[in-house]
Amino acid sequence: MEKTPHIAILPSPGMGHLIPMAEFAKQLVHHHHISATIIIPTTGPPPKVQTSILESLPENIHHIFLPPVTEVATLPPGTRPEIQVFFIIQSSLSSLRDALTSLKSKTHLVALVFDMFGHDSIEVAQEFNLFKFLFFPMNAMALSFTFILPNLDKETSCEYKDLPYPVKVPGSVSFRGRDLMAPVQIRTDEAYKGYLQFSKRLTFLDGILVNSFHELEAETFRVLSTVGPIYPIGPLIRSDTNNGSDRHESLKWLDHQPTKSVVLVSFGSGGTLSLDQIHELANGLETSGQRFLWIVRSPNEKASNASFFTASSQTESLGFLPQGFLTRTKNQGLVVTSWGPQIEILSHGATGGFLTHCGWNSVLESVVHGVPMIAWPLYAEQHMNAKVMTESLSLALRAESDDCGIVRKEVIEKVVKELMEGDEGKKISKRLNELKVAAMKALSDGGSSMESLSKFAVQLMKK
Ligand code: UDP
Question: 132 has which bridge partners?
Answer without folding.
Answer: 112
